[in-house]
Write a structure and sequence with these properties.
- The protein contains 7 helices and 2 strands.
- The longest helix is centred in the N-terminal third of the chain and has 18 residues.
- The chain starts with 9 loop residues before the first helix and ends in a 6-residue tail after the last strand.
- The protein has a two-stranded antiparallel sheet with strand order 1-2.
- 50% of the residues lie in helices and 8% in strands.
- The chain is mainly alpha-helical.
- The chain has one domain.
Length: 143
């Protein structure tokens, strides 16, 4: 008789991977925030933040962010409606800093001399480029 291999859910495998490789958790969080921004899906940010917080340990994140564990669970659920202040506390507890970067590359100074430059702000809203969000671990350089 053959033994069945132990079953591991995808979420449990992800949690184990992020515990072993915190940089991958950060990459996952960045990717989810980017997709959520592109598709206007704020729930994706909460669920990805919840998964990363579980990998780091909900109780530890709750203690570091001065939030109650139950409140943190509720806040990061799909139906959660957290305040910005609470999200910032969770980011600080995870030691990550959100940054924004522009989609368009900045023109060089020589390209600006003698040329008329149109700012994104002068364009109608439909033609403006949206800024891209990126999360970086504290102490590391954005680049």
């Amino acid at each position: 008789m053959m033994k069945k291999l132990p079953y591991v859910s995808h979420e449990d495998a992800q949690l184990q991977e992020y515990r072993e490789h915190p940089d991958r958790a950060l990459d996952y969080l960045n990717a989810c925030i980017q997709v959520a921004f592109d598709e206007n899906d704020p729930e994706l940010v909460l669920t990805s933040l919840a998964l990363v917080a579980k990998a780091y340990g909900i109780a530890r994140v709750a203690k570091a962010s001065d939030l109650k564990r139950e409140s943190l669970h509720r806040m990061l659920s799909r139906r959660g409606n957290p305040e910005w202040r609470s999200i910032f506390k969770v980011f600080r507890a995870l030691h990550v800093h959100p940054t924004l970067e522009s989609d368009s590359a900045r023109p060089s100074r020589s390209a600006l001399r003698g040329a008329s430059y149109v700012s994104d702000r002068s364009l109608p809203p439909a033609k403006r480029r949206a800024p891209r969000a990126r999360i970086i671990r504290s102490g590391s350089k954005a680049g």
